[in-house]
Structures are given as structure tokens and as C-alpha cells.
Amino acid sequence: MKYMATTFFALASTSGLYAAENEDIKRLTTAAETVTEIQATPDKGIPTDLFHKAHCIVTIPGMKKAGFIVTGKYGRGYAYCRNPAGAGWVGPAGMRIEGGGVGLQAGGSETDVIMLVMSRKGVQGLLKSKFTLGGEASIAAGPVGRDASAQTDATMKADILSWSRSRGVFGGLSLQGGTLRADEDANKSLYSTKVTTEDILTGKTKSPIPSDEFAKALGIHGGMQQAN
């Protein structure tokens, strides 16, 4: 996926992205690669029907998790939503995830995280400056497998579904109690001005990226079917 990084850095010299920090550009490129790589894995990706029905996607590459029994989480990534005015996806909107949780993992680790927002209630939470996963919007670990049945109580009722990839292993992940909020620093870096998550994810603010590989990947894997 090195060509993605090359594309982003080439664009940075010819568009509004020249103002963005290299760290933000690299993170956006990595987030795009995460989606592409996970969905390219035969029979081990996110079920296609769920991806097609999702309103929005949040990708956090390299989320950090540390501790024993009681764990802490922290990560930065990006969100995209289906364009309410027509075809395609709008974004990227910088996002941060942080907060405590309960787990059994000793030591520290870095995990790629993908969240699909499946309901309008989940979208409304995402548009806020800050909201609690499992509080204002329910969240559940998502099923794995391109053609896996998603007809379970958890996946049918959850506002948000989540998955993780760590050391090559991909599976459902519970982020209950974590906090998701806007990454204002990343947004200002990419857009060269102060913009809100709501403006970005409702299509009111135009993307600064002329050729967005992340949005293209979503078009390929997420399809254009609108969620109910």
C-alpha cells in the first residue's frame, strides 16, 4: 500500500493539504490501508451486508491499550459518513478515542480499530463534540466473516459495531465505556481552518483531498446502499 502514501504526499504539495502536519497525513493513509487490508482478507473481514448498511465508519489505526485487568485506551483516527446529499462518502473528520475499560490483557499493545455506525442514533452521537460508547449510543463486538450471518440480537440492536486487528488477528472488540470525541487538532491541520465534525460529516465542509483513497476504498467495500 506504499502507493497510497505516495499519492497523499504528492497531493500535499499541490492542494490545501500543504498546511497539514506529516503525522496527520500518515495517520489518514494508514487508516485507509487498514480498511483495504482487512476487507481484502478472504473470509475474515467485516460482513459485506453490514458494511453496505452502515451510515458511517470510524477507523483508529494503532489504538494504544495498556494495563492489567483494568486497561486504558487511547487512539486517533478518522470518520467518514455517507453523503446525505447524494452518492459517495464525506470526510475525513479527525476522531479521538480514550477512556478506561475492563480486560485481561497484560502489558501494552497497539490495535487497529474499525467501528461501523449502524443507526441514526449512533450518527447523532458521532456528530457531537464528545460522547460515551455504550452510554449515549450502544456498542457491541461485530461478527467476523465476509458472508457471516449478522442476524444476532447484538448486531441487530447495537447502534455501533466494532472490530480490532492486532498482530494479524482480526475479531470483534468491545469498546464499552470508551469516549469518542472530535480531534480538533487533526481537523485544523487538514482543513487549514477551524471546522466542526458536524460540518464535515454532513457534507457542509468540502474535503481538502482532491483524490481521497480512503473514500475510494469505502466506495469499493462499503457500497452505496443507504442504511435504514
How would you describe this structure to a colleague?
This protein is an alpha+beta fold. It has one domain. The chain is built from eight helices and nine strands. Strands 1, 2, 3, 4, 5, 6, 7, 8 and 9 form a nine-stranded mixed β-sheet that branches. A hairpin with a 1-residue loop joins strand 1 and strand 2. Helix 1 (2-12) packs antiparallel against helix 2 (22-39). The longest helix has 18 residues, at 22-39. It is globular, with a radius of gyration of 16 Å. The N and C termini lie far apart (33 Å). The model is unreliable at 1-19, 101-108 and 224-228 (pLDDT under 50).
In whole angstroms, the N-to-C terminal distance is 33 Å
Task: Give the overall average pLDDT.
Answer: 76
Structural class: alpha+beta
The ordered string of helix (H) and strand (E) elements is HHHEEEEHEEHEEEHHH
Question: Number of helical runs?
Answer: 8
Query: Major β-sheet, in short?
Result: 9 strands, mixed
Helicity range:
25-40%
Integer count of domains:
1
Q: What is the β-strand count?
A: 9
| Apparent shape | globular
| Overall radius of gyration | 16 Å
- Beta-strand percentage range: 25-35%
Low-confidence stretches: 1-19, 101-108, 224-228
Key features?
nine-stranded mixed β-sheet; 31% strand; disordered C terminus; alpha+beta; disordered N terminus; 228 residues; 9 strands
What's the quick description here?
This protein is α+β, with helices and mostly antiparallel strands.
